Amino acid sequence: MASVHESLYFNPMLTNGVVHANVFGVRDWVTPHKMALLVLLSELGRAGPQLGLLERRRLNRLLLPLLQGPDMALSRLRKAIEECCPQLAGSVHIRLKLMAEGELKDMEQFFDDLSDSFSGTEPEVHKTSVVAAPDSPCSQQAFPSPGLFLRHMILAYNKLSFSQVYKLYTALQQYFQKDEKKDGADENEMELTNPEELDGKMEKEELDGPLRVFLTREEEIACSGPLSQKQAEYFLSQQASLLKNDETKALAPASLQKELNNLLKFNPDFAEAHYLSYLNSLRVQDVFSSTHSLLHYFDRLILTGAESKSNGDEGYGRSLRYAALNLAALHCRFGHYQQAELALQEAIRIAQESNDHVCLQHCLSWLYILEQKIFDSCVLLEHSVNKSLHFGLPYLASLGIQSLVQQRAFAGKAANKLMDALKDSDLLHWKHSLSELIDISIAQKTAIWRLYGRSTMALQQAQTLLSMNSLEAVNVGVQQNNTESFAVVLCHLAELHAEQGYFAAASEILKHLKERFPPNSQHAQLWMLFDQKIQFERAMNDGRYHVADSLVAGITALNSIEGVYRKAIVLKAQNQMSEAHKLLQKLLIHCQKIKNTEMVIRVLLSIAELYWRSSCHTIALPVLLQALALAREYSLQYLASETVLNLAFSQLILGIPEQALNILHMAIEPVLAHGAVLDKGCAMFLVAKCQVASAASYTPQKKIEALESAILNLNEAKTYFAKVDCKEQLRDILYFQARLFHTLGKTQERNKCAMLFRQLHQDLPAHGVPLINAFK
Question: How would DSSP label each residue in 251-272?
Fold first, then answer.
């Protein structure tokens, strides 16, 4: 039975003066741009012996993207050739001018001369000729050589009718005339342009390099005609590779979609174009367009019979079950879990009927992702890992191990056992060269060490990933490893620098993240959240609560739990205790329901602080003990140390500073080793408070030594607070030091501290809590 698209396969079409055909029929056609390339190859063959080695290498590098890329304006082509060999660019321009301003027979004679170059006892085009030299990159790639391109163009030209030849000649004249008009406009612009501005513009263009014309294709879309099959395949593979490795170099979503629509207009059954459209829609979180493109991809895959040809009769069913599986993954990505479950059940049913164990393992992995939203599916995940190893699917097995490690980290398993499991998965990665999973494993280790409060180990893992080279081959100029793993690691690195008071370094890292992952990219929400959190902490440290409050909305849009928690912190700082308590209680119930243990502990610590500020010190103790029990149960060492510091402060308030000093020694070491600068300052401030309170019962000589030791600890705390510009804490320390110097009879030091305290006190509002009653 004849295909409904049979009329399109072999009928040449003419659009905008360009003779072309559908990609299922004629594979190549002649355009004015390709004629310019033919002239370039012809002149290159003539001038080959006179070209220097450097010029020849530059031209060889230029030929590959020219032959595979889309058509471009003549001015851009001339500029690219001039940057490699100015003399050859002049020869190409003169040759094109003679054809465009001459007669039709001149163009026919040109093609006759090209045909003659393949004939004779010593043809100009052969295996060792200049246009197909062994050192040419074209001969080393899986793409046609310039000699093969010449033959394709000659054959395509010979198939044209007389009317099509005439239209091609007319298109060549228009192509050349547009270049002449542009040259005239550029000359007039140069006369009106400031020479200094012109020099700066030329310097910038020189820095961009000779291949710059192929990296920014938005300007070419307007002048490029329909693509041939090879051009379309090259364009799709190039853009797919860029979306995976370096999204910033790919076309913008709108421009890429416009180009894909142009491809699909001439060939609606181009399945790969529909799939790239699906990936492009995912970049902008477009649910409707991504679903539409994914369904069309599998429809066209079945329609063209591509799967049936490679897999026999099984190809049709294979496309159907993987279509349902991909649809389930798409719905899961957008949070449509009910629709995802229905699609997954369909994929499982078809895979079971076909006895496809590989597809069933993929389904089992996605089933775990869906089921973990409802209940603990650890057993299901372990079964998936075992089955994947049995069927020889290392990628799925490794992903299962990564998910299992993540789940057990949240369940409070010991870090050494988790690292042993990740070590086993790393063996799989290196054995099978799974570059992407190596990155994920290192990013997972970074996040686990951060969860357990070991910032030094997290920093080490982050630096390890950033210093690695990718195992995947990418094109020159493409940034390697622009994946979610690198975004996660860089975000952790920015937060670690901010916690240590290196805000300039954190800003540089975030600036790099913004360049590497633009706002419209799929991983941009990661750095957006971390950027907002760092700005929030700086505003809180500086006492600018109105600024911090304005940042809460942005944080809530990216992470609702973090946003609510920070809203409660702002209310607490503004002494709105009842509103903060209500918000924290609601957040506590929600986090306990979803088993977010880390946030539960942080909320309990904030509630305990509310009780201190309300002078309900005895009520705070059970809350702190509950937080400590959770932190130790789930192996959250840093949060456990922070909870112990809060318990020591409670004991200080209750009048037992000696006991507070004893438990401080148990918790202060992890804080000083792995804690943020603000936490280190608060810990040293608390030690000084306990020392002063304990000195009341000492002998006079021992009391003086205790007070002097407290002053030294206060100096260290002051250094920490100065790094993060925490003015409120600095004011409290200066007040405390002035009191101690007064007790020791050191008038000059007391007056200096009093003066500095007064300067800060005038800039800041008065604290609503007495000095001794605030831990942070």
Answer: PPHHHHHHHHHHHHHH-TT-HH
725: left (phi over 0), alpha (psi -120 to 50) or beta: left
Instruction: Give pLDDT, residue 26.
Output: 44
Which residues are within 8 A (CB) of 411 and not within 5 positions of it... i.e. 6 or more apart? 634
pLDDT at 490 over 90: yes
pTM to 2 decimal places: 0.74
pLDDT in tens, 343-376: 888 888 888 888 888 888 888 888 888 876 555 5
For residue range 295-324, list pLDDT tens digits in order: 888 888 776 654 444 444 455 667 788 888
Of 241, 283, 236, 288, which Cα lies nearest the Cα of 262? Answer: 236
**What DSSP string describes 302-367?**
HHHTHHHHHHTTHHHHHHHHHHHHHHHHHHHHTT-HHHHHHHHHHHHHHHHHHT-HHHHHHHHHHH
End-to-end CA distance of the chain: 80
Question: Helical H runs in 49-103?
Answer: 53-68, 74-84, 86-100
Lowest mean pLDDT among 87-91, 99-103, 228-232, 664-668: 228-232
Tokens representing residue 608 in the block = 């305990």
User: Which letter does DSSP use for residue 15 in this model?
Assistant: E
Measured distance CA(69)–CA(720) in Å, rounded: 57
pLDDT of amino acid 184: 58
Using CB atoms within 10 Å of the CB of residue 764, give its burial: 0 to 12 exposed, 13 to 18 middle, 19+ buried.
middle
d(CA 34, CA 41): 10
Residues in CB range of 691: below 8 A, 6 or more apart? 661, 706, 707, 709, 710, 713
Measured in degrees and rounded to the nearest 5, phi and psi for residue 234 equal: -65, -45
| 601, 636 contact by CB (below 8 A) | yes
Give the dihedral of Cα atoms 118, 120, 123, 128; nearest 10 deg.
Answer: 110
Predicted confidence at residue 157, as pLDDT, reads 84
C-alpha distances out from residue 109 to 35, 90, 105, 469, Å: 13, 21, 6, 52
Question: What mean pLDDT comes out for the span 730-752?
Answer: 90
Handedness of CA 308, 305, 330, 554 (dihedral sign): positive
The amino acid occupying position 767 is: H
The token duo for 170 is: 């007319």
CB 165 within 8 Å of CB 85: no
The confidence band for 769, taking pLDDT boundaries of 50, 70 and 90, is very low
**Distance (Å, rounded) from C-alpha 405 to C-alpha 732?**
44
Handedness of CA 30, 33, 35, 37 (dihedral sign): negative
Instruction: Look at residue 22 in the predicted model and tell me its pLDDT.
Output: 40
Dist. CA 77–CA 29, nearest whole Å: 19
What is the maximum alpha-carbon separation in the chain?
A: 115
Q: Which helix (H) or strand (E) holds 121?
A: none
The 3-class SS string of 287-307 reads: HHHHHHHHHHHHHHHHHHCHH
Cβ proximity of 406 and 444 under 8 Å: yes
Task: Look up residue 57 and give its two tokens.
Answer: 């290498």
The residues that bridge with 14 in the sheet, in sequence order, are 19
* Distance separating alpha carbons of residues 66 and 579, to the nearest angstrom: 66
Residue ranges of the alpha helices (H) in 3-52? 6-10, 32-47
**C-alpha–C-alpha distance, residues 570 and 576, integer Å:** 9
The H helix count followed by the E strand count for the chain is: 36, 2
Residue 508, C-beta contacts closer than 8 angstroms, at least 6 positions apart: none
Kindly report which listed range (8-22, 491-505, 553-567) carries the lowest average pLDDT score.
Answer: 8-22
Considering the chain, what percentage of its residues have pLDDT values greater than 70?
81
What's the rounded Cα separation, in Å, for the pair 742 and 726?
25
